[in-house]
Amino acid sequence: APLTPVHHGAMPAVCELPDPKVKPHRTIIEFCCGNNSLLGQVDLIKEAKGCQVFRINEDHDVTTQEGFDYVDRLLDSCYGPNTLLMAAMPCTGGSQWGNINVKRPGGAAKLRKHISTFKKIWKTFVHCARKLVAKGGKIINEWPRSCKYWKWPEVVDFFKEIDMDYVEFDGCMLGLKGRKGLPIKKPWMFASNCDKVVRMFKGFMCDKSHDHEHCAGGNTKATESYTMQIVALIHRA
User: Regarding beta strands 138-144 and 51-56, do their DSSP bridges make them parallel or antiparallel, or are they unpaired?
Assistant: First the structure.
């Protein structure tokens, strides 16, 4: 399959990445992102001008050899120093809700399945991140601050290996709103080996000046798309 960057709208344009020997281009590879992520809407964000965004989602299924080969080939094609791997790996198995759902009928089996799937995705991510860092590229991993995966020894050790730093922020301070129009206090954390990303997101903890909607149900799914403010900061960094 051809390597397809995302543009405004549902249908991506088909083209190969530019030859890195000819001219460096700024590239973002979204790893396990939501289908409606604003990060790839380059026509809507002035900070995204000149950036190509490649979206690796459920359709690519990086737990399969085909999906692994696709993203691996994408990394081979990119110019490392101007490339960011933006990881949004599913955190269902590490969610605090798991403590509740595991007590429901079938909950334990579902939790084991979520964790098993994550381990397969994590294996591909480690390969990709290690490969891109060796080429001089940058990494961001995002999960809620409460996600248990942050404390897994293999996660802690690998992020230490690739020199990741951490920054915490709340979605309500960067335009995240729910179905009722109220801010959602999603407690995010980014890990990144790009110091500009860490600096850019500091200082956005909730100032308690507003009411919130709960980050649950349909609101939770909507947060996968980020906000215009969040993606603008990522592109700027």
Answer: unpaired
